[in-house]
Write a structure and sequence with these properties.
CATH topology of the largest domain in chain A: MetI-like fold
Radius of gyration of chain A: 23 Å
CATH class of the largest domain in chain B: Alpha Beta
CATH architecture of the largest domain in chain B: 3-Layer(aba) Sandwich
Chains: A mainly alpha (283), B alpha/beta (422), C mainly alpha (294)
Oligomer: heterotrimer
Structural class of chain A: mainly alpha
Structural class of chain B: alpha/beta
Largest interface: A-C, 105 and 102 residues
Strand order of the largest sheet of chain B: 9-10-8-11
Distance between the termini of chain A: 22 Å
Shape of chain A: globular
CATH topology of the largest domain in chain B: D-Maltodextrin-Binding Protein, domain 2
Distance between the termini of chain B: 69 Å
Number of domains of chain A: 2
CATH superfamily of the largest domain in chain B: Periplasmic binding protein-like II
Number of helices of chain B: 17
Strand content of chain A: under 5%
Number of strands of chain A: 0
Shape of chain B: globular
Strand content of chain B: 5-15%
């Protein structure tokens, strides 16, 4: 908390409040607007003047959402795929992170460079050959077609953050394990991992969110409606009428689809921010 | 506790791993899946219900798609390319057939029956590719000029024969709240259809299917585009560059325009909706200048069978039903779908239908090449740039020509496997 | 390190390596190979070897290069704005006496939400008749008539930049905030004793100390921004008039709509080439540590 102008002043408090207000408005404004739209009646949505608080509340859009489209199914698809991808990613990242943090293998930097390369390149660079493979093994519309790529694309986050976290665990623990005759795998499994709850949780959440939000692969690999993730399903909401998009419905869809993520963020914001910033500054 | 969790996970995995949750192995029902346009009035559903009554044990799964043809095409491509067997039939727009056939996704229907002669030839032509017939047409579309009979009578004018005449009449009759000529200028397939008619009217052509020569940089093509560009803001509302079929129809129907270029469905819809405008509307072919010909862009959808479908015979039964004279009459009544069957027009006593038939017999197809989607995107993009004032007509068409030449392989190196274009 | 240890290390790394090789490295190699084949509708979707044909076509493809330039311009505006705004926000929060925790939570929200879902929301916000942007601008007196944001090429482009900036500025703010907190207070105290002005302290202490963080942030964002797909696909689809068609959209279209696989692969290779040049440029400007000429 190192500010460099010490002291209390009303002016600074005032400016501070304004800054905070602007930030909150910026970050939360659009989402708030979606919420307001989702509880307004259609008449009010397409009426003038624009109202920023509903004159009349309604839950018809939320009801219609689940009635017209299998939205519960979309949410489940997203959850299932993201959860499996996260589990797989963590399972693969933890050993690798341990190797980096403790064993420092030769040629490690090459692997790090590879991981960083994967993180930096946009998905479009990888999608088509993956699509070819998915097609040829008949995995289109199957969750596995996304679970494996998601786990892979999130390995940079997984490995680098977990490695940073492992480095904060005192070496004495490892040494105690060695004295007890454990192999490195044993040390990892029995000593390090049980202590890594926070690190695993943080990293897991980041991977979960990234998987939930992914669009391009989900759009291409899961075209069948019942298989779609919620992110893709929203993007293809069509009105049924010829030219007006159903804004109330869309607002409701957006709120429902991001609600789980917001819950995660609310509970674990501290962890996430610490993890994010630690991961980047540790490089 | 852990045990139960484990079972739950295992079951969930099994459920999701099983793929399509809507199929039940114990069921004997045959399900036919097809992606359709929005079925707001429930007409298609009603038609399919009739089929189900006549064929117990068959269920037609109507998947309602978005209004945009391009988007539905992409949905079909995605499903067919992935080989997932999601659809048994394709409700195919005429321009999709070369692409889908070249990709090997459609069943050749030529030998399935010999009723091809009962249809307007152009509509069957539109479903052919390299000698095979892949689509049974259920709708015949051609671009028409709708005009306000009452307004033209007031100034004693006949429906315009040339573009200059149309512009002159527009300028005379334009008033506050009423424009002259309204059309579809949004950047989508409709824009290409509109332009094609003007292009033919000026005596030009787009791509010759035999020689693959590109006619976009001819003086006629530039003049045609210039006509449209000049129209925006003078005889056409500035917003016309964002209009699709419905926007333009609604403007015309509410009295906002003298001339409307649109598809035949507008006429029937006005009757069905009991629009007050109905009495005052006339139909005419699109104008043409000397040296050009009046053109109606061939459009319309039909049904094709997915080659890899396990229930092709049942799918064919559905097609026979949907394309029968009774069914097409039903769809015409309900949503103004213009049939492709000849006897519908030949036996009609409705003067409007006879006028329509005049036009529909002389339709102009869009280039029946497999790469049509890309050729259309190229043209749409450049046309839109010109009519929104970002490029001059000449520059826009020059760019379109270059890109289309590139597409059709003008720079190609010799290909050892002789392909479609050689 | 001894043999045994090396073995263990590599065994622990193996699953990750396999996954990366399979999912990331294989596609890159395969794309390169595919670019030397013609596989499209004129070959009935069969691959036919064609050597450098796709690259010849690519070089003459004016539309592709237009797309590249357009995407670079988008990247420039977006990343530039994010950096400036992010830095300003980070400084403001850093010096603010309270609310840091709340700010950090709020800053996560844009980053956490799926771009594609919010993309639809942005369409509504930029709607010409009922959109918030037009409403606010008109009420503030800055606009007399509503603008059809997504209907005009220039305003659609702006709307896209705004939507992208909205999402990623908070993320940059968080990164820079963390970087600011590592700068020792003593440096500033010493400088103000020497009589340095606020601005001088900023330029000579803050910026250089933040340089590594800025470099990583800009590089990461620039590469992601160049490949932007979700937001454009949902918000504008590349329109109007192709004014917002980015490289990724055009490439995706070549694969999934035109079914021109070999050419699409060549486009990806070309795109990667442009990305490398971009990376080199950013490294030259931001990556090298200054000698410290003060």
């Amino acid at each position: 908390m190192k500010t460099y102008l010490p002291g209390f002043s009303w002016k600074r408090r005032g400016v501070g409040a304004i800054v905070l207000g602007v930030l909150l408005l910026w970050c939360l404004g659009p989402l708030w607007w979606q919420f307001v739209t989702s509880v307004k009646t259609n008449a009010e949505i397409t009426g003038l003047p624009v109202t920023y608080w509903p004159r009349q509340w309604t839950i018809e859009h939320y009801v219609e959402l689940f009635a017209r489209r299998p939205f519960a199914r979309f949410l489940w698809n997203s959850f299932f795929i993201s959860a499996c991808a996260t589990a797989l990613c963590l399972a693969v990242s933890a050993p690798a992170a341990y190797a980096f943090a403790r064993l420092k293998p030769r040629g490690g930097p090459v692997v790090v460079a590879l991981l960083v390369g994967v993180a930096f390149f946009p998905t479009i660079a990888f999608f088509f050959p993956l699509y070819e493979v998915v097609r040829s093994v008949g995995l289109t519309n199957h969750p596995l077609s996304l679970i494996i790529p998601y786990a892979a694309f999130n390995l940079p986050i997984g490995i680098l953050f977990l490695a940073a976290f492992f480095r904060t665990i005192p070496r004495e623990i490892d040494e105690a394990g060695v004295i007890d005759g454990l192999s490195h795998v044993g040390i990892l499994w029995r000593l390090i991992l049980p202590l890594s709850g926070p690190g695993l949780a943080t990293t897991g959440i980041l991977v979960f969110i990234a998987s939930w939000n992914e669009f391009l692969l989900a759009l291409t690999f899961l075209p069948r409606m019942e298989a779609q993730t919620v992110t893709v399903a929203i993007a293809s909401l069509s009105g049924g009428s010829l030219f007006e998009l159903p804004w109330g419905l869309i607002g409701a869809a957006i709120i429902i689809s991001v609600a789980p993520l917001l819950v995660l963020v609310a509970f674990l914001q501290r962890r996430i921010v610490d993890g994010l910033t630690a991961g980047t500054t540790a490089n | 506790m852990k045990r139960i969790a484990g079972w739950i996970i295992a079951i969930a995995l099994a459920l999701t791993g099983c793929g399509d949750p809507s199929s039940s192995p114990a069921d004997e029902t045959v399900v036919l899946s097809v992606l359709m346009e929005p079925d707001g009035r429930g007409a298609w559903r009603a038609l399919f219900d009739r089929f189900e009554e006549e064929h117990p044990g068959v269920r037609v799964n109507l998947v309602e798609g978005p209004a945009s043809t391009d988007t539905r095409e992409d949905l079909y491509v995605n499903a067919l390319l992935s080989g997932s067997g999601d659809f048994d039939l394709v409700y195919a727009d005429v321009i999709w057939v070369p692409k889908f056939a070249a990709a090997g996704w459609l069943e050749d229907l030529r030998d399935y029956w010999d009723e091809w002669d009962s249809f307007v030839p152009a509509s069957v032509e539109g479903g052919t590719y390299k000698g095979g017939i892949y689509r049974v047409p259920t709708q015949l579309n051609g671009g028409l000029l709708y005009y306000r009979k009452d307004l033209l009578e007031e100034i004693g004018a006949d429906p315009p024969q040339t573009f200059a005449e149309m512009a002159a009449i527009s300028k005379t009759l334009q008033a506050a709240g009423r424009w002259g000529y309204v059309w579809q200028g949004k950047q989508y397939e409709g824009l290409v259809c509109n332009y094609l008619e003007i292009l033919r009217g000026f005596g030009g052509f787009w791509i010759d299917p035999e020689t693959e020569k590109i006619g976009l940089n001819s003086p006629a093509a530039v003049d045609a585009l210039a006509f449209l560009c000049d129209a925006v803001g003078t005889i056409s509302p500035p917003g016309v560059t964002t209009y699709a079929e419905e926007d333009s129809r609604l403007l015309f129907q509410s009295g906002g325009a003298v001339f409307l270029r649109n598809w035949p469905y507008v006429y029937k819809l006005m009757a069905v909706e009991e629009s007050p405008m109905f009495e005052n509307v006339g139909i005419a072919p699109m104008p043409a200048n000397p040296g050009g010909e009046s053109a109606a862009t061939l459009g319309g959808a039909g049904f094709a069978i997915v080659k890899s479908s396990p229930v092709k015979n049942v799918a064919w039964a559905l097609i026979e039903f949907v394309a029968s004279p009774e069914s097409v009459r039903f769809m015409n009544e309900k949503i103004g779908l213009q049939p492709a069957r000849r006897n519908f027009y030949e036996e009609s006593t409705d003067p409007m239908q006879q006028a329509l038939y005049e036009v529909l017999q002389r339709t102009t197809p869009r280039p029946p090449i497999p790469q049509y989607a890309q050729a259309s995107d190229i043209l749409q993009r450049r046309l839109s740039a010109a009519i929104t004032g970002q490029m001059s007509p000449a520059d826009a068409l020059a760019a379109a020509t270059r890109e289309t030449e590139l597409l059709l392989g003008r720079h190609r190196i010799p290909n050892p496997h002789a392909s479609a274009n050689e | 390190m001894n043999r045994n240890l090396a073995w263990t290390a590599w065994a622990l790394l193996a699953p990750a390596l396999i996954l990366v090789l399979g999912v990331a490295v294989y596609p890159v190699v395969r794309t390169l190979v595919l670019s030397f084949f013609t596989q499209n509708l004129s070959t009935n979707l069969e691959p036919v070897f064609s050597g450098l044909y796709n690259y010849q076509r690519l070089l003459a493809d004016g539309h592709f290069w237009e797309t590249v330039i357009r995407t670079l311009i988008f990247t420039g505006f977006a990343v530039g704005s994010e950096l400036v705004l992010g830095l300003a926000a980070a400084l403001a929060v850093h010096h603010s006496p309270f609310g840091r925790g709340l700010a950090r939570t709020a800053a996560l929200v844009p980053w956490v939400l799926p771009t594609a879902a919010l993309g639809l929301g942005w369409i509504w916000i930029f709607n010409d008749q009922f959109g918030v942007v037009n409403d606010l601008l008109i009420h503030a007196g800055m606009l007399s008539k509503p603008i059809a944001w997504l209907g005009r090429p220039d305003t659609a482009f702006t709307a896209l930049v705004l939507a992208d900036v909205w999402k990623t500025t908070p993320f940059i703010t968080l990164l820079l905030l963390a970087g600011l907190q590592t700068i020792p207070v003593q440096l500033y105290e010493a400088a103000s004793i020497d009589g340095a002005s606020r601005w001088q302290r900023f330029v000579q202490i803050t910026l250089p100390m933040l340089q590594p963080t800025i470099f990583v942030a800009v590089l990461f964002r620039a590469l992601q921004s160049f490949g932007i797909f979700d937001l454009v696909y949902v918000m504008t689809g590349g329109g109007p008039g192709g004014a917002t068609e980015t490289v990724a959209i055009y490439t995706y279209r070549n694969f999934m709509r035109y079914l021109d696989f070999g050419y699409g692969a060549a486009l990806l290779v070309a795109g990667a080439g442009v990305l490398s040049v971009l990376t080199g440029g950013i490294w030259l400007v931001l990556g090298r540590s200054n000698g410290g000429d003060r």
